[in-house]
Amino acid sequence: MTTSGLVTNSRVPNTTVLFVCMLVVAVLPVVVVGQCSCDSEEGDNNKSEALRYKLGAFVSILVAGAIGVYLPMVAKRVPALSPEKNAFFVVKTFAAGVILATGCVHVLPDAFEKLTSPCLTGTVWNFPWAGFVLMVVAIFTLMLDNLATSYYTQSQLAQSSADPTVNVDEENTGKHDNQDVPVHTHATHGHSHGSVMLSSRYDGPVSKELIRYRVIAQVLELGIVVHSVIIGLALGASESPSYIKPLVAALSFHQFFEGVGLGGCITQAKLKCRAITIMALFFSLTTPVGIAIGIGITNVYKENSPTALIVEGILNAAASGILIYMSLVDLLAADFENPRMQTNMKLQMVAYASLLFGAGCMSLIAKWA
Questions:
Q1: H helix count then E strand count, the chain
Q2: Phi, psi (rounded to 5 degrees) for 179
Q3: Dihedral angle sign, alpha carbons of residues 200, 202, 207, 208
Q4: Residue 6 belongs to what H/E stretch?
Q5: pTM (2 d.p.)
Q6: Do the beta carbons of residue 294 and residue 235 sit within 8 Å?
Q7: Cα(28)–Cα(33) distance, rounded to whole angstroms?
Q8: What is the distance between the terminal CA atoms of the chain, rounded to a whole angstrom?
Q9: What are 259-293's pLDDT values in tens digits?
Q10: Cα–Cα distance between 299 and 109 in angstroms, integer?
């Protein structure tokens, strides 16, 4: 049957993203263990007390992340917060502000700090590698974003043309099976008004806008997971209670707000229950798993070793590139170019305030995390 090919094609991006995320979790602890060339600060090291805080952080961050990522999925059942309502735009801009601040204020400064450390000797490190990696990854994210959208669209069109029982509705009436499905696409930052429906027996009616949301959710999770593993690893490897204590609350709020942003994207993607569960659980578990791995390699992990500095710096720069691109291009630009936003000045002002509030809250947390 033609639907079997579609099932395979639809699952490829999910499998790829999941594989890459698992690879990061598995490989990162190995590559950051190395011979220390700069002495690590001992501080007020107390293994037993630090372990208690780490275990508290494990539970607190796990719960906060899970609540954050599932909150938008539960909230969509509230009529006032459904995607068709203006309030949903306000929540989305808040979440986009959180993600933007994560990339600019939390992740990118860490990347610059790691890659400009005095522990990295040699003229090669006089180059601003953090900014360069961010730029390259942002470009590759743009390429991945558009290529994945094109792949989804072409596979759906091929399926529709191969199956005469599947309807492809490209009329301005926007009707498919007696349902109105409006589309306002931004894949190439152009505008396509009306309805562009790509249907399949596997997923039912699939609009080009829905395809975009699915790509956005998967790429965004990849960027968040890379960052989450790194901060979990650093916390778990520390033996200083004074360092860990303020991070417990700060990282809990950090994961909660990040989860709200990712959960909103997953909600709009309208994925199947199994895919939603996998993505939400993976986000919730990455930082706690990073903490657990950090606890396990406490005796061999050296945060100031050249290997650790280079790997963490490059991964942080890459994660910031993904997060900044996704927040500005795929989330904010798409929302603020939406006709509903363009024709409602009051909604625009509220959305701007929500954006600034989200970015401000996440930036404030950077004082402790």
A1: 12, 4
A2: -125, 140
A3: negative
A4: helix 2-31
A5: 0.71
A6: yes
A7: 9
A8: 52
A9: 988 988 888 888 888 999 999 999 999 999 999 99
A10: 27
